[in-house]
């Protein structure tokens, strides 16, 4: 998300208005950015920890991006699409957890079409023109975010770590 977005910014700046939308998930709530081991190497990898870290990273990235873009015609949003009935279970190795996930999906998941609604809302809703950096769920602004997703220091540290990891060229720096 980080590098691609920064590489696209020159094109986005040419548009009268532009929106950057990062799909996250409610699993950000249990996320923690492992700055000391961002790739969860040396036995630290856990599918749930990796997923929640990546979803939290999307929220923090969006927050920091909006801050750095400032008063421009480019807005950034992150969102939770809902529990969508996709093939997300394919990565679960445990037959027991795979079965539980299948039952969960049948009972609670929404259709792919319904799961796109918040993304479309963030992309198209004119009333969001004056907002940036926020998180949406069910086409509504979520104003009671968990503290890990509103930690501006972590957002800034993640931005710098990302720049270092991708060896960000000066021409893309914000």
TrEMBL record:
InterPro entries to which the protein is assigned, alphabetical: NAD(P)-bd_dom_sf, SDR_fam
Alphabetical list of PANTHER family matching this protein: PHOSPHATIDYLINOSITOL-GLYCAN BIOSYNTHESIS CLASS F PROTEIN-RELATED (PTHR43157), RETINOL DEHYDROGENASE 12, LIKE (PTHR43157:SF27)
Lineage: Eukaryota, Metazoa, Ecdysozoa, Arthropoda, Chelicerata
Superkingdom of source: Eukaryota
Pfam families listed in its UniProt record: adh_short (PF00106)
Stored SUPFAM superfamilies: NAD(P)-binding Rossmann-fold domains (SSF51735)
Organism, as annotated: Oppiella nova
Gene Ontology molecular function: any one: oxidoreductase activity
Gene3D superfamilies the record matches: NAD(P)-binding Rossmann-like Domain
Protein name (Swiss-Prot/TrEMBL): Retinol dehydrogenase 11
Keyword entries, A-Z: Oxidoreductase
């Amino acid at each position: 998300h980080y590098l691609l977005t920064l590489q696209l910014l020159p094109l986005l700046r040419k548009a009268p208005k532009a929106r950057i939308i990062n799909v996250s998930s409610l699993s950000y709530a249990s996320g923690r950015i492992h700055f000391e081991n961002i790739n969860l190497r040396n036995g630290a990898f856990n599918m749930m920890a990796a997923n929640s870290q990546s979803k939290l990273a999307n929220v923090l990235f969006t927050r920091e991006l909006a801050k750095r873009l400032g008063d421009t015609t480019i807005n950034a949003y992150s969102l939770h699409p809902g529990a969508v009935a996709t093939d997300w279970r394919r990565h679960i190795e445990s037959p027991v957890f795979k079965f539980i996930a299948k039952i969960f999906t049948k009972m609670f998941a929404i259709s792919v079409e319904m799961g796109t609604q918040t993304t479309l809302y963030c992309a198209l809703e004119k009333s969001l023109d004056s907002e940036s950096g926020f998180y949406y769920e069910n086409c509504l602004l979520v104003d009671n975010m968990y503290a890990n997703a509103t930690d501006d220091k972590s957002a800034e540290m993640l931005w710098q770590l990302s720049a270092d990891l991708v060896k960000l060229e000066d021409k893309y720096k914000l």
